[in-house]
Amino acid sequence: MSRYPLIIEEKKPGIYIHVPFCASKCPYCNFYSVKAQDSLMDDYTRRICQALAQAAGRWPRQADSLYFGGGTPILLGARRIEKILDAARRHFSLNRAEITLEANPASTLKETLRNLAAAGIDRLSLGLQSANDRELKLLGRRHTARQAARSVEEAHQAGFAHISLDLMLGLPQQTVRSVENSITFCAETGVSHISAYLLKIEAGTPFDRDGVASRCPDADEQADLYLCAVESLKRHGFFQYEISNFARPGSHSRHNCKYWLGAEYLGLGPAAHSFLAGRRLFFPPDLAAFLRSDDPLSLLVEDGPGGGPQEFALLGLRLTQGISREEGAAAFPDFDWDGLWQKAAPMVGAGYMGQEGDRLFFTPKGFLLSNAILARIL
Hints:
Elements: E1 14-19, E2 21-22, E3 34-35, H1 38-58, E4 63-70, H2 77-92, E5 93-103, H3 110-119, E6 123-129, H4 133-138, H5 145-158, E7 162-169, H6 176-188, E8 193-198, H7 206-209, H8 219-235, E9 239-242, E10 245-247, H9 254-261, E11 265-268, E12 273-276, E13 279-282, H10 287-292, E14 301-305, H11 309-316, E15 323-324, H12 325-331, H13 337-349, E16 353-356, E17 359-362, H14 364-367, H15 370-377
Parallel strand pairs: 1-4, 1-11, 2-3, 4-5, 5-6, 6-7, 7-8
Antiparallel strand pairs: 8-10, 9-10, 12-13, 13-14, 15-17, 16-17
Helix pairs in contact: 1-2, 2-3, 3-5, 6-8
């Protein structure tokens, strides 16, 4: 495919560790998290190490990615994270693995970042959300744009090979200029990856209760902000490889691509999900139960089969490279791939999807309507 290099992953599984601790809860967030306490984090670290050992006995594998998500994983501190890394290496090898940690910009990261880089974490994902201090205040963030720039500089100095920044689109009173300014800010820090997500008001969050949705840009304005972001990121050298993810060449998230390419992954911790041996499983979002259990894996809940042809298409079409009819037919010969291509033809004609060789993919404007289009063609 000539537009962008194809993202082709090894079929080794990845490991996702959900770290459910935050200093405070952002008003838009519905991810499972609790307030960070040293005693809880010590107990959690021990349980995760135990769960890694048990999982290795149940699903013996060599993993090539490890992702600490949350929550705010860096709150564990270097000592606890190193213990978890030691356990993961002991049981899953992690040979030449990509190891990612999420963090929030802060004024106290310098020493922690040095220790984490020395421990082998090579990818840092910082929750910037905006380079506009008014927008940051609205989002309940604890940092300013200036503090975020300093955190990125400290991450560079610590030796992280890849640094990613998150941005949020569709905020109340957000403008095209504001989005472009945030993207320019990110590019000038020298990061290699940017994620840009449209704000979604989740039920039960403070934003939902406070009626923030009524102050957000409407659907047409959100579309303008998103398409502006895609073009601005492209001008700054970041190619779009997924609906919300943009990278300089070679800097895409190998771990996250496993989700979209159908690779296996083991998720550990409260609210973490797994896809193993064709089955989907998850841990209930209950830290107390996770810490009480002498057998953490006994808490896993079966969530049905996964990895079928519809899922292959649904997840693969999140990537700008889309899906290959040849690869689909080889993996799922009984599925009507010709029928799928025929149903997609009107979307191609309308400019919402594209075809190149045997690949079918969404265009940027098609990504904005991808849920409705996928419901129609699948």
